[in-house]
Amino acid sequence: MPDVSGSLREQLSVLNRHRRKMVLFFLSTMAVVTLGIILCPRTYESQAMLHVLIGRENVSIDPTAATGPTITMMETREHEINTVKDMLQSRTVLDKVVAELGAQNILDPEQYSNPDQSRDTDEFSFLGKIYNLMLAVNLADPVSEGERAALQLANDVKVSSEPESNVIQVVFRSGTPEFAQRLGEVFLASYQEQHSRAHRTHGSQEFFVEQSQERASALAAAEQKLRDLKNKYGIVTISARQLTLSKQLEQVETDMLSTASAIAGANAKIQALRQSLEEIPERLVTEEITEASQAADTMRNTLYDLQIREQELSAKHTDQNPLVMAIRQQVAQAQKLLSEEDKRRVQPTSSLNPANQQQKLALFAELASLSGLEARYSSVKGQREELLADLKRLNQQEIEVAELDREVSLLRSEYLTYMHNTELARINLALEAESISNVNVVQPPTFVEKPVVPPKALIIVLGFLIAVSGAIGLGLLCENLQAGVIHSPEKMETAFGAPVMESIPSVHLQNAGASAK
């Protein structure tokens, strides 16, 4: 088992032998660290916090000069926060800050804090000296002061945000606390202006005002044209006039149907009356008077003689006998002549038939009624034709009025739309003028007098560790460089294998080895 206490004593003796070198190295290192802390330029931080309201529509309306409707897409929190971060780091904002504060103040913040000490930025700035040196050896291209200020500003401004958070942290670094705070104020003001401008359609209000005036003039002209057309046709509303005409037409058609039905009934009645008149005689025989006639008496006597002669012949002869047949023919002729003569002897007396007269009166009345019905039917038919013509003209007028109505409605809708968008554009300009947006500064840029660079405590701790470890390493290195020197009796006994009687300082192993040989 190795002797731990002996090994530890040897190590401590090594450090003790080189303690002066180690102390000198430790003190030198700490002095360099302290001098570095003293000479290192101070960097101060100013921190600001921005709260992003998700959805810019919460605080602003952004009308777009477009003929069709616009669609607002829903944005996620990450998308909107990343958009704000990108705009915070945009070159436009950096250039505005450089123009506001000045390139020399950004490159040399001491000049801003102490305006009485006017000096050349490139001459006194450490980075300026390095840049001039690189220009001298052609390692850098000539860049304007404003460009270098913008590049440095991009390095001095750090934007960050935590996951699942709507807060964005912006850190501004500068050589003085006053300028760091002022840089943050100017930077945030420039960003707010750029944010409002980026979310606004330029020239929208002027466009909508001009379009509203044009639509107002066109609407007034169309309304006047519509009034003139209605006055020309003498109508208030097409629907009311159509309702009146439809009622009148319905009434006329009803009258036509009833009149036509009455005419048909009258014709049927007239036909029936005429048929009945044909069956009823016009005159009736009231009495008959019989007059005496000598010729008839003579003929009657002759007939009697012929009848007696016929009876005699019939008794003597058969019916087929020519004499019988001849006499019978004479009897028939005599009877015929006698009957005719008897008719002439009767003198009838007649008068008008009352039934026939009543039927004729009824027929004449129906004919008169039929004439009236036909005249009424013709009149109603004429009214119907006039109403149909009026309705046809009204339908044509309705087309003209409807076209003007549509034009007026369209112009009124466009006018109201443009007026609404004009008001939205005005509100948007007012929001921009007041710097109102969905990005609110919840923590203005802070004023911190304690510098963040250099981190003194960390540098001192690291310097102390480097000094201690370097001093120990230096002692061990020196010990290794003096490996041929025997520093203890124990090493002497180990080297020669004999006990040491007396210790003499500074005895070299090489000389002792030569003497032993």
From TrEMBL:
<keyword id="KW-0808">Transferase</keyword>
<feature type="transmembrane region" description="Helical">
    <location>
        <begin position="457"/>
        <end position="478"/>
    </location>
</feature>
<feature type="coiled-coil region">
    <location>
        <begin position="377"/>
        <end position="414"/>
    </location>
</feature>
<keyword id="KW-0472">Membrane</keyword>
<feature type="transmembrane region" description="Helical">
    <location>
        <begin position="21"/>
        <end position="39"/>
    </location>
</feature>
<dbReference type="GO" id="GO:0005886">
    <property type="term" value="C:plasma membrane"/>
</dbReference>
<keyword id="KW-1133">Transmembrane helix</keyword>
<dbReference type="GO" id="GO:0004713">
    <property type="term" value="F:protein tyrosine kinase activity"/>
</dbReference>
<protein>
    <submittedName>
        <fullName>Tyrosine-protein kinase etk</fullName>
        <ecNumber>2.7.10.-</ecNumber>
    </submittedName>
</protein>
<keyword id="KW-0175">Coiled coil</keyword>
<keyword id="KW-0812">Transmembrane</keyword>
<keyword id="KW-0418">Kinase</keyword>
<dbReference type="InterPro" id="IPR050445">
    <property type="entry name" value="Bact_polysacc_biosynth/exp"/>
</dbReference>
